[in-house]
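Example S7 (structure tokens).
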């Protein structure tokens, strides 16, 4: 519509032609990275070409996909005219601001680059290019999608909990203990900041009986006892956490995440790390509608001093993981890339105590002793795209559609659970 001579003039009434194309490319890459991070090899180079007669697109390997994503972002960035609007109306992320779309594209390029840090020695170059072109500079630049208070366009976290009645999910004990500064005594795991209470705790969840408690990780529903249920956060209360607000703003990418990426890029830089922690706390305070007064600033300063004594791969990754609450795919991907945080519960480790006995977490499917390395391809792919599906399956570990075949960029081993960057 923006390139065809018959339609591009009409399309331009909604915003600059090239800017519209650029935004479409940026959003496509954002989504396709989520898809690739989830399943592994997926159709891309031959996808989106139904009008050209391609109904069975091939599955592209990840070592081809991620560099292609970066090239596509570079093309989008080159198209952007910052003197023109992207869209006159309807842009719920940036209200048509082309400069902010460019910043998002460059920041997204940094996310893709960091995913390649263990396998591609060019990852630093990709980040340097993005920084030179213009990345996020503050929380004001974040790519946030704000949902509506009106049905049926409320946030899906709200809809899942209050509309669909999915009361079988909650904040977990390991994550709550991480926020509370408590070590995992069931598995003798140390806490990087023992005794330090995270200022985001009261935003992420709600107390019950004055205590912040999470549900045991991977608890089977038939093992849910009255005691465990009564200790769980009361999210059906009059004041549920902000993540269950109808109009909760879901991030596509935030400034804090970029700060942690840049800290890693510059060899665990202290200033970028502290900027990441500070901007994360401020980000969540703003989402919660809390006034960031002097008391909040004093609490942040105290917390920042407590968590900044050591800045390394573990502390950067752990703070990044905390910040990525409600961004499940990105947090999961970062664990697979880095092996952090160490508080992550693995199959065979203890999750709760009943009758004085420790109960181990048992996954529903074989994950080879780790958290899932990928999600299985949907079964309907075997009929919708059989050749691509079967070829992709044959390249997975054991030649099966499983949860344990590692991604191209996931090079962790039992002997080296936290591989160094290239």
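Recovered sequence:
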């Amino acid at each position: 519509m923006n390139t065809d001579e018959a339609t591009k003039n009409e399309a331009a009434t909604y915003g600059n032609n090239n800017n519209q194309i650029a935004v479409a490319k940026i959003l496509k890459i954002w989504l396709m990275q989520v898809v690739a991070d989830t399943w592994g090899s997926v159709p891309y180079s031959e996808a989106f070409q139904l009008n050209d007669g391609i109904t069975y697109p091939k599955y592209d390997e990840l070592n081809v996909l991620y560099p292609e994503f970066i090239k596509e972002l570079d093309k989008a960035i080159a198209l952007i005219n910052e003197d023109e609007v992207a869209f006159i109306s309807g842009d719920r992320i940036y209200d048509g601001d082309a400069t902010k779309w460019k910043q998002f594209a460059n920041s997204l390029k940094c996310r893709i680059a960091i995913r390649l840090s263990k396998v591609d020695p060019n990852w630093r170059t990709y980040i340097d290019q993005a920084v030179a072109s213009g990345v996020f500079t503050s929380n004001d630049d974040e790519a946030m999608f704000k949902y509506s208070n009106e049905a049926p366009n409320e946030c899906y976290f709200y809809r899942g909990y209050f509309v669909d009645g999915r009361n079988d999910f909650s904040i977990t004990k390991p994550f709550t203990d991480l926020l509370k500064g408590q070590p995992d005594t069931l598995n003798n795991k140390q806490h990087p900041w023992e005794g330090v209470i995270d200022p985001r705790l009261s935003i992420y969840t709600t107390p019950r009986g004055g205590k912040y408690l999470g549900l045991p990780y991977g608890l089977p529903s038939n093992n849910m006892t009255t005691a465990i249920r009564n200790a769980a956060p009361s999210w059906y209360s009059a004041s549920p956490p902000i993540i269950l607000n109808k109009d909760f703003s879901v991030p596509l990418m935030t400034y804090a995440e970029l700060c942690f990426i840049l800290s890693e890029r510059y060899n665990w830089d202290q200033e970028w790390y502290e900027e990441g922690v500070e901007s994360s706390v401020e980000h969540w305070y703003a989402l919660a509608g809390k006034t960031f007064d002097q008391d909040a600033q004093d609490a942040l300063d105290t917390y920042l001093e407590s968590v900044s004594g050591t800045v390394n791969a573990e502390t950067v990754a752990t703070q990044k993981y905390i910040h990525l609450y409600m961004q499940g795919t990105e947090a999961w991907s970062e664990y697979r890339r880095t092996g952090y945080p160490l508080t992550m519960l693995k199959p065979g480790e203890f999750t709760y105590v009943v009758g004085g006995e420790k109960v181990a977490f048992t996954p529903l499917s074989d994950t080879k002793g780790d958290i899932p390395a990928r999600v299985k391809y949907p079964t309907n792919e075997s009929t919708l795209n059989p050749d691509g599906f079967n070829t992709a399956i044959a390249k997975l570990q054991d030649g099966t559609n499983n949860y344990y075949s590692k991604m191209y960029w996931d090079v962790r081993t039992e002997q080296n659970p936290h591989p160094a960057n290239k």
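Notes on this example. The chain is about 40% helix and 5% strand.
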